[in-house]
Amino acid sequence: MAPIEVFFGAIVLIFALIGLARGFLRELGVTTVMMFLLFFLSRFEPQLDKGMIKIMSANQALAAEKDLWQCALFVFVIVAAAFVSYQGETLSFGGQPPRGAQAVLLGLITGLLNGYLVAGSIWFYMHKFGYPIAFMGFTAAGLSGFAQGLIDYLPLTFLGQPVLLGQSLLLYLSGLLILARVIR
Hints:
The chain is an all-alpha fold. It has one domain (4-183). 72% of the residues lie in helices and 3% in strands. It contains eight helices and two strands, in the order H-H-H-H-H-H-H-E-E-H. The protein has helices spanning 4-22, 24-57, 60-64, 66-86, 100-128, 145-150, 155-158, 169-183; strands at 162-164, 167-168. It has a two-stranded antiparallel ribbon. Helix 1 runs antiparallel to helix 5, helix 2 packs antiparallel against helix 4 (66-86) and helix 2 packs across helix 8.
């Protein structure tokens, strides 16, 4: 299997192509949903972890694979949110779409951003839980130096840091995008 950074880089590029096809205004809706979801996960992750551990401790078979099930849950939530937000016109921004090179550039940038948010968040949870899906060929021992350096720039690590009043950048970016959606 290809190195993890190549695999997730390819996913980000696929999202960039989707951004080109869908356009910048639709992609901003997906960005809003993903930012809000990541803020929610970063804020309530400790409670979700405690609840899952409590549920799994009752079942020895689940408890043995605790990291796999926790990782699978978070990955499922991220993929489901991305799928739902890409399905139809759920939260597209209003206004006239830009034309020409500006449309291409903005669609590409927002597609890349959405790919970074989705693929990077999945990678974050795989890393957090020790790459429990080793059957796919991803292990902590198999990370290159470049991949290890990228871990500090994954969305929940990079954007989840407190910046103002103890709140993460995810909160402020989510609020800004929602405000922009309401004002338009």
